[in-house]
């Protein structure tokens, strides 16, 4: 199935900006001067931006300021201690954090001298604490049920479990590595200086991806060279990357896969961008395919293969694409529609068409005059260049930039 559009709309090049890298949740009386304090110090020394609620006034309900901080954090680290569930403040934080997880926030539970099964089964201190909370909130039992559900959910996540005897610094370094990998993976891509006409295309591709559906979806973006396929893919990547456990944008795939070494480097880059593991080395293409399959088959990933011209380039990275985890999405940009139609996975195909005349005029004028329209003396020449470029964004950008600050004679000569 093919889709195309040439509708224009305004587009802001800004992408969502997290106010904090890490929101640190813990019960101060238990761990402020111990584990949480050490973790905060190392995160701070590594230049991560951390929210810690030391200065907020505590009460039965968490403040709107705190909820805002949770929502604007890329990662939440929850440090569970023996007395964690006795604090209504901590339980409310936990419930809010898990709401944010639904919208793409990364949640890292740390069990500090607490067995996760105690939280999952709500036994021991956690059972006692929740029984007390039920008595305290007997007129609002839904609140406690929400806390119980949140505790069960978080205890089933991939967790960090610390016990006495394990080197604390080494344990914390593992958490720092995870935070670093997550931040690297969620860094947005620069799109374009003037991404005019891109927004409508990006919205159409995003609809085809449909991140809320189960299953694995492959979407192909095809069109002429210079029509803006890569730019569109970058915008989509920036918009949806937070819905995935890992994302990778492999640019100039055709150019970089011409040699065996180039293919191996692409395989290693894919592994690094998803796992953050610089030690992931591949000795040959066949082994690389299996390493990728073994290490990533349990992760919901977003992968963009930019500028593919042969089917075997895809197979050298993903094999037959039959191992991708549920919810994963692949975007392939290509000049050759045949690459997409021969895929076994039956991808949805989106065709990118040229800019309409209004968009072409705006893009050219931005590069040539740093304005939305040409100067009066240059209108006729501008129209000639726009006709010559035939609505190709790359041509309009290159010609406009070359002519910028040139006089009439230079324009006429060009």
Task: Give a short summary of the structure.
This protein has 414 residues and is α/β, with parallel strands linked by helices.
Structure characterization notes:
There is one protein chain. With 414 residues, this protein is α/β, with parallel strands linked by helices. It folds into three domains: 20-184, 3-Layer(aba) Sandwich (Rossmann fold), CATH 3.40.50; 200-352, 3-Layer(aba) Sandwich (Rossmann fold); 357-413. Helix content is 48%, strand content 14%. It has 19 helices and eleven strands. The strands form two sheets. Strands 1-11-7-10-9-8 form a six-stranded parallel beta sheet, sandwiched between helices. A five-stranded parallel beta sheet has the order 3-2-4-5-6, with helices on both faces. Strand 9, helix 14 (311-318) and strand 10 form a beta-alpha-beta unit. The longest helix has 18 residues, at 168-185. The radius of gyration is 26 Å and the shape is elongated. The model is unreliable at 1-15 (pLDDT under 50).
Structural descriptors:
414 residues, alpha/beta, Rossmann fold, 3 domains, six-stranded parallel beta sheet, five-stranded parallel beta sheet, 19 helices, disordered N terminus
CATH class membership of the largest domain: Alpha Beta
Low-confidence stretches: 1-15
Beta strand %: 5-15%
Please tally the β strands and state the result: 11
The radius of gyration is 26 Å
Helix and strand run: EEHHEHEHEHHHEHHEHEHHHEHEHEHHHH
Give the rounded overall mean pLDDT: 87
Count of structural domains? 3
Helical residue percent?
A: 40-55%
CATH superfamily of the largest domain: Toll/interleukin-1 receptor homology (TIR) domain
User: Which fold name corresponds to the CATH topology of the largest domain?
Assistant: Rossmann fold
């Amino acid at each position: 199935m093919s889709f195309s559009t040439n509708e224009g709309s305004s587009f802001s090049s800004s992408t969502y900006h997290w106010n904090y890298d890490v929101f640190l949740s813990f019960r101060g009386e238990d761990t402020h001067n111990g584990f949480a304090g050490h973790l905060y110090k190392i995160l701070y020394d590594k230049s991560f931006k951390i929210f810690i609620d030391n200065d907020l006034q505590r009460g039965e309900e968490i403040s709107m300021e705190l909820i805002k901080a949770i929502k604007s954090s890329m990662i939440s680290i929850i440090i569970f201690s023996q007395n964690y569930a006795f604090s209504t403040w901590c339980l409310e934080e936990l419930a809010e954090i898990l709401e944010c997880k639904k919208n793409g926030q990364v949640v890292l539970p740390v069990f500090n001298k607490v067995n996760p099964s105690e939280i999952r089964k709500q036994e021991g201190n956690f059972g006692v604490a929740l029984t007390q909370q039920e008595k305290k909130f007997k007129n609002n039992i839904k609140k406690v049920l929400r806390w119980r559900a949140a505790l069960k959910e978080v205890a089933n996540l991939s967790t960090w479990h610390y016990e006495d005897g394990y080197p604390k610094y080494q344990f914390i370094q593992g958490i720092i590595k995870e935070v670093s990998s997550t931040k690297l993976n969620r860094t947005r891509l620069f799109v374009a200086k003037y991404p005019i006409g891109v927004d409508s295309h990006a919205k159409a591709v995003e609809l085809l991806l449909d991140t809320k559906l189960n299953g694995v979806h492959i979407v192909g973006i095809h069109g002429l060279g210079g029509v803006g396929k890569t730019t569109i893919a970058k915008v989509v990547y920036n918009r949806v990357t937070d819905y995935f456990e890992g994302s990778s944008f492999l640019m100039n795939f055709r150019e970089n896969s011409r040699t065996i070494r180039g293919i191996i480097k692409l395989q290693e880059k894919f592994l690094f961008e998803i796992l953050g593991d610089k030690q992931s080395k591949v000795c040959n293409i066949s082994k690389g395919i299996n390493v990728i399959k073994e290490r990533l088959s349990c992760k919901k990933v977003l992968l963009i293969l930019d500028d593919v011209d042969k089917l075997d380039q895809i197979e050298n990275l993903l094999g037959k694409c039959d191992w991708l985890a549920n919810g994963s999405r692949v975007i392939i940009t290509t000049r050759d529609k045949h690459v997409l139609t021969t895929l076994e996975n039956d991808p949805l195909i989106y065709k990118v068409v040229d800019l309409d005349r209004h968009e072409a005029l705006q893009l050219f004028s931005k590069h040539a005059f740093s304005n939305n329209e040409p100067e009066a003396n240059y209108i006729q020449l501008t129209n000639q260049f726009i006709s010559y470029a035939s609505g190709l964004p790359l041509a309009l950008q290159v010609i406009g930039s070359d002519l910028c600050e040139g006089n009439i004679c230079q324009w006429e000569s060009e």
